[in-house]
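Two quick folds needed for the group meeting slides. Do the first one here.
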Amino acid sequence: MGQTPAPHTSSQLWREARAIANAEELRQALRLRFEVFAPVGIISAAYLSPATRLELDEFDRFSLPFGCFIGTTDHLAGTVRIITRQLQEHASRLIGTILREINDANLRRAYEAPLPGNLLLSECWPYGDLPSEITSDPATCGELSRLAVHPSHRKRGLARLLINQAIGAARQLGLKTLCLACGTWHVTLHERFGFRVIPGSRTASFRGQPSAAMYMRLAE
């Protein structure tokens, strides 16, 4: 249960990326996040559970999670989330189910931690000047976060499916702006979807990794 998918042949068809529907799908997403982010050291150890191999933080209860699944199965090969300013009851219920099943006190403590004063990373990013779209109307800004694709399924367009799904969902929510933070090696990927680097942020270093903050206007 909850294992990351084994490699599949390139002839297999992909479902469209979609919202995560149940606790098992979310468990797979949290496990994939652990497997992708834990080795590179960009996630705080407080959010990582080596015992369960899951990654979870306090922003997940404000997030809409999405997944990309293999063929006609329910095996998740990629995931992303949108952080919003509202408590997301569906995601909170799914996470509650997972936490009761795994009984991991450290992960529960991380999930239930008080939120920082600024909910979105773009608002507490210490580099660059935030665009007026974020500062003048922060209530309509969301954050694209935790984009992860299993190594066995990269370079097959899954990131594109996930980002497109997230952008579409953000528009349906009525958000006007999306922001994100990423390694500088991912800047070009996000620029293809209309994200722009926040001036001055490309020189940033996040947990020792060269990073940048980006945003896009969803009305464009």
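Then this one, please, same format:
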Amino acid sequence: MKTIRIIGTTAALLLAGGMIAGGLQAQGQAKGHDKQQAKQDQQQAKQQAKQVQQQAKQQQVVTRQVQQQRIVEQRQRETQYRQVLTTQVRAAQQRTAQLQQQKRAAQNAAQQQYLVNLRQQQQRLQATRDYARDPAFSARPAYLYRRAGTQYQTTQYGADVLRQAVNYGYQQGVQFGQADRRDGQRSDYQNAYAYQDANYGYDARYVSQTDYNYYFREGFRRGYPDGYGSSQQYGTVSNGSPSILSSILSSILGLTAIR
């Protein structure tokens, strides 16, 4: 009986030892698998990071190409607008002389102020501009808008200039409308030099002259009846400064954010 018990005990010990060894071996294999999986995950993360860097680098090159093209277009606009502005200043001087002969004092005063602004624009265009550091030329398109049945894109900077065009147009419309009323003239916004010229405040930046002229006139033809009729149908007056209503401004521009 003792011999049998000793043999049974020995077998149990051997079995337990085998189980422990097997467990240790399994643990070693699991650890090896975890290390291998961690290594694979690390390599995959490096590959993904490399791909992201490559994509960012490619996108940066595209951005520089777009930036350079925009700068070229900007300089072309400036050159063309300098020539246009010289002609428009001369025409504004002629209109001023006509108003003086016609003794239209209020309209002449508004015209004089408009002429001063055009001359200031000429001076600003003579300044040297460092477009390489201007963030507007590397900015992504932010808005869509439609003019004359054609859809266009513009950046946030371009959208700000279009808003400025409408606001300036409204303000000048109010002034020229008031001037015609004071001079006893009939209501005719299209006869105003400011409407015909439509370059007030434009410095050839970020948008075309055609777009600026269009939206300036849209503001002007709403400001003129408010000024002529001493009403506030399209805008308000704060501290003597007229401003177009934000709802009217939004409806004129029709900007749609690019998602």
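Slide caption for protein two: Strands lie at 143-147, 150-154, 235-238, 241-244, 256-257.
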